[in-house]
Amino acid sequence: MIKKSLLRRSFNILVIFFLIFIVALSFYFYSSSRTKMTSLGENLDMIRDVLLDRGLLTSFTDSIAALSGLIWLQIFSFLASSIALLFLLWFVYRLYSIEEMNALTDPLTQLYNRRALMWGLKNEIERAEVFKHPLTIALLDIDYFKRYNDSFGHVAGDEVLKSIAKIIKNSIRETDFCGRIGGEEFLIIFPETNLMEASKICEEVRRNVEKYRFKFESRLSRKDITVSIGLAQYSPQNHKKSKEQFLDGADKRLYLAKLSGRNAVR
Questions:
Q1: What count of other Cβ atoms lies within 10 Å of the Cβ of residue 125?
Q2: Are 75 and 6 in a shared domain?
Q3: Between residues 38 and 232, which one has the greater pLDDT?
Q4: One domain, residues 128 and 232
Q5: Do 153 and 57 have their domain in common?
Q6: pTM for the model
Q7: Which of 16-30, 34-48, 55-69, 91-105 is the most confident on average?
Q8: SS3 assignment for 49-79
């Protein structure tokens, strides 16, 4: 969803710049050609009269043919330059799109980062208000992650984050999107989804994490690497919430999941 929106915006920018360039270039060639052709026509009339007087019309005809060849060469050069410019703009567009995505991607998990998620959440709230569709979010936190990180080091901790990111991504639907908003906390956004439907998906995420065997986990006294998840639903037909209030609602539910013993969906 976010990626498509960014690519669409980048493509629109590219098209606008290319059209502006073509219009400006066409106007320049039209103005320049019109002035030059008027002047050339007057000069050719004078040359024709002189050549007719001197009996050199045949060489004049050859000159006209050569001039026509030069005109066609200019047209070909213009088309070749336009095609080359189009490829150059496409290459710049691709670089821009890659840089745009890198700016919105968490380098460790390759999921969306906080900036991208907040931008996406704002758009989904606006869509929910317009179409009166439900919208649900889930805040996910890794249980006892600090204990694991302190015991086995940050490299092992990073592997846990990457593994859980893959589990989340493989457990949610294609229409949902997720990312890391900081530390060991992730946000999942469920467009056009009510609380009950999102809860079922989050329960699957929780079970998949619980079943997964992380590195060094056998050295722990018990299964420590689990997740707690708190959900909140945005209902525009009942009342409007700001983005911050919406997130705060999910954070409170996450706190309840932690209080209930962790490894839970609330």
A1: 20
A2: yes
A3: 232
A4: yes
A5: no
A6: 0.69
A7: 91-105
A8: HHHHHHCCHHHHHHHHHHHHHHHHHHHHHHH
The candidate with the shortest Cα–Cα distance to 139, out of 156, 154, 121, 155, is 121
Question: How many folded domains does the chain comprise?
Answer: 2
Residue-by-residue DSSP string for 146-166: HHHHHHH-HHHHHHHHHHHHH
Q: In this structure, what token pair is assigned to residue 145? A: 């992650």
* Catalytically annotated residue among 100, 159, 184, 197: 184
Is residue 159 annotated as a catalytic residue, yes or no?
no
Look up residue 24 and give its two tokens. Answer: 């400006």
Residues 119 and 96 in one domain: no
From CA 187, how far away is CA 225, in angstroms rounded?
Answer: 18
Residue-number span of the structural domain to which 39 is assigned: 2-103
132 and 61 together in one domain: no
Which of 58, 76, 103 is the last residue before a domain boundary? 103
Top-ranked range on mean pLDDT: pick from 11-25, 49-63, 163-177, 224-238: 163-177
Q: What are phi and psi of 108, to 5 degrees?
A: -80, -50
What do you get for the CA distance between the two ends of the chain, in Å? 26
- Are 134 and 91 members of one domain? no
